[in-house]
Amino acid sequence: MPLLSGSAFDILGVTQDTDDSEIRLRYLALKDSISAGVIERISGYPDLAKAAAQLLNRYDAAYDSITNARKMEAIGLAIRDAQPKRRRFGDA
Q1: What percent of the chain has pLDDT over 70?
Q2: pLDDT tens, 5-44?
Q3: Which of 41, 45, 46, 67 would you call most buried, defined as having the most Cβ atoms within 10 angstroms of its Cβ?
């Protein structure tokens, strides 16, 4: 999984045409698989806990990026559809 990639879809390991509910399930599964507190307790290394926290932040940012972009797209489509149809001169 390319975690250092700039694509939010790559970070979560999904494609752009993946359904919103599947993206959410994938995001929650990834977050559940990492716990900074457990990692520090098991390993005894605070640096690993920091890395886990950064990874969780990256998952959060990727999920927020995807959901916000899709919300904005939906709002844009709704605004476009709500606009009255323009008539040209001579149209009936």
Answers
A1: 90
A2: 679 999 999 999 999 999 999 999 999 888 767 777 777 7
A3: 67
pTM above 0.90, yes or no: no
Task: For residue 1, give the nearest of 39, 12, 53 by alpha carbon.
Answer: 12
Query: For residues 9 and 69, is the Cβ–Cβ distance under 8 A?
Result: no
Tokens (6 digits) for 23: 């993206």
Q: Who contacts 81 (Cβ-Cβ below 8 Å, separation ≥6)?
A: none
* Distance of alpha carbon 15 from alpha carbon 26, whole angstroms: 11
**Cα 18 versus chain centre, distance:** 11
CA distances from 23 to 17, 20, 42, 43, 81 (A): 10, 5, 30, 30, 27
Q: Return d(Cα 77, Cα 74) in angstroms, integer.
A: 5
Angle, to 10 degrees, between the axis of helix 46-82 and the axis of helix 36-43?
170
